[in-house]
Amino acid sequence: MTDQTAVRAPGHVLIDWRPEDASFWAESGKRAARRNLWISIPALLLSFAVWMVWSVVVVNLPAIGFAFDTGQLFWLAALPGLSGATLRLFYSFMVPIFGGRAWTTLSTASLLLPALGIGIAVQDPATPYSVFLVLALLCGFGGGNFASSMSNISFFFPKAQKGMALGLNAGLGNLGVSVVQFVVPLVITAGIFGSLGGDAQTWAKGDVTKAMWLQNAGFVWVPFIVLSTVAAWFGMNDIADAKASFADQAVIFKRKHNWIMCWLYIGTFGSFIGFSAGFPLLTKIQFPGVDPLAYAFLGPLVGAFSRSVSGGISDRFGGARVTVWVFAAMIAASAGVIFFLGFPDKSVGFWGFLAMFMVLFAASGVGNSSTFQMIPAIFLTLRRRANGTDGVAAVKAAAEASREAAAVLGFTSAVAAFGAFFIPKLFGTSISLTGSPVLALEIFIAFYLSCIVCTWWFYTRKGAEVRC
Fold it and tell me: Which pTM value belongs to this model?
């Protein structure tokens, strides 16, 4: 079987896939891998947009007639994180069972349910709060997709390029958070769908009133979801060697380093997605005179950009070393947020608050990339130690490491995604108990410190179990 025939096997299945073989990669593997990557990225971007749409919608609900209190609004902002993280626990294992092409198609199409549901529900102020809770939970479909997307892309690229490929997929996919927080405030100001989109609502705050089409926050994604679903079905591939049952993948639960990397990824991605979900509402509460939607998109934009461009840095300098510096920066930035929250000049306080959050987002983006670069390196090292590095043993080690690393990538992203629930809720709880989010930030600092110690002990110090 020629390399070219292997790539173009019938039924979109790649029968012979050897990304570590330089000649195979140059002749046909690279082209197929990149095609799958560039179809995966917009699908993942849409997933993040749908997942985080409530971070923008909740800010406007009271002004168009929904009588929800602050606690109820925080619940709507947090619940997509809870359901998305829970779904990731299952999505982590779906690609080797169903195939990347089929699962990407199905999971992308599922985004139509919450997108259409939100568009319908927000048009009637009599819509029960329970309906909004259900729709918030359905937005978790978008959060779940990240685990399967990263698992899928990890199979396509050689070890030397996994950091770059995963960084692009995740970084540009994460950009969906910024896109939703930038696009939604624009599209809700006009009836872009005409009579098909429904009538405008009246937005009122104090003496200010204006027309608003909040339903567009859901409807605007529908045509793009349809296009992305079609592209996945006709343009992506399954990899025959990547097939594995749940039992085959469940071995990761016995791997110590799976749980260690879960802890570290909570600190990086958990922070990124949690701050993305909670930042707009936190800004509105702490600085009532500021329009949070004018700045909300900046943080996710910075985080997504830093993730997409920093994969090569981790490939060059080592993911663990970069991760240590990431957590140090996040500790400093969290302390900076606390400082500016207490600044007597509210104008200076806000700009300092915003700047420190931008540092948090940027550092978390780099950390998302560096931790995901660590995982394939760790498991390839461990498999080679167990199986050997010569001949058939080396090939077997690489295949086993690839399957385990893919499952770990998905599972760690699932655990970390709970940050989208706990960070907004922790901010809300801290404000309820103390009148300030400072307690929550102090907890984050302590957690980041534990991540530095963990990374140093297991992965960077002299004599560490797996230096990477």
Answer: 0.75
